[in-house]
Amino acid sequence: DFNERCAQCSEVNWGLTDGGRFYCRTCHNVTERTREVVSTDFISNTRVQTISKGSRKQEKNGESSEWYICEGFQLVLKKQAEALEALGVCRQMKDEVLCNFWRRYLQKSRQAYCNRPAGEAVKALSVCDSSTDVGSEPETPSLLHFLSLSESEGDLQTDCSFASSSSRVSGSTSVCSGSVDGSLYLMKNQKEKLRMTMPMTLSFCYMALLWLREPMTLSDLLRFVVEGHIPYFNIFLHFPEKMKLCGLDLKIFCVESWPVYEEVYKKMLELAAFLDLPRFPDITDSCFLHPNMLCMKYLMEANLPDELHNWTCRVVKKICIGEADFLTLVPGNKSTRKVKYDVLAVAVIIVVLKLLFLLDDHYEW
């Protein structure tokens, strides 16, 4: 009774997942359209048509299901995006921007949305060398559901189908890790294809905020993390019970130090280049990230006279740092400046103070 064409392949060949959502049997695209349960007979019939879960061994008697490191980071990003939305960021950030960045990362790092030779998964698991990429260990997930607002926590994992990888990896959930690929993940070359880390989740978030030109600088983002408004420390508290963190997983997901501004910023630039993103939306004088806007904010926070804003605007214009070409991020272009908007605005204020009071770093002392 569902005759709409698939948005991905234009076929009309629908089945039903365990969660009651329609999926395309041709390309495995899962829609947000669900079918209402009208009787218990309907439930028993739909079980025959569900996607093969492969390694998705649902827990029995409290046992945990098999899960992969990329699924763990996917959950972290989802929770962080929801926290940012609660802080006032527009809802496009999660479902449209961050979601697409994450999917592109999974494809570029060959963890999902890509085709592989048939024997590559077996080879990757049997020979753990540094030349093997992170995504080689299981078969490609047919679809990683990530950020649907209607999706439950359980669906986040169960809708991710790793085809028959349990038959390839006997006892893959080892005693030293709750995840399937925790030990393999840590054996990879850290510089290869930008392996995900907890600080990189913040790089993803900041990249999405910058794309949307949201009025939140990187220093604001890190402050919200430190104050506990954005999940980062004790992230294991946000994992569902069936995704048990133990052993090597704790080394990957549990952090004991504050996120470092330079590290998060540098990884954001590397991610933008790695994903081959186009030029970001222009930072114009009407945008909150423009130095004139940020200078006004920081002058108020520092309780400095309002009249100083005229001087900061003059300095910005004089040294041509208010132009869109200077402020806008162009990933991969080494000739363009990589602007730290909050740092730049504070620097302009300091320069104005030095000009007005004739300070030269010696006289004031």
From TrEMBL:
Domain Rrn7/TAF1B N-terminal cyclin residues, every copy: 73-237
GO molecular function annotation: RNA polymerase I core promoter sequence-specific DNA binding; zinc ion binding
Domain Rrn7/TAF1B C-terminal cyclin: 257-365
Membrane-crossing residue ranges in chain numbering: 341-359
GO biological process, one term: nucleolar large rRNA transcription by RNA polymerase I
Name by which UniProt lists this protein: TATA box-binding protein-associated factor RNA polymerase I subunit B
Keywords on record: DNA-binding, Membrane, Metal-binding, Nucleus, Transcription, Transcription regulation, Transmembrane, Transmembrane helix, Zinc, Zinc-finger
Pfam family membership, one: Rrn7_cyclin_N
InterPro entries on file: Rrn7_cyclin_C (IPR048538), Rrn7_cyclin_N (IPR048540), TAF1B/Rrn7 (IPR033599), TF_Rrn7_Zf (IPR021752)
GO cellular component: RNA polymerase I core factor complex; RNA polymerase transcription factor SL1 complex
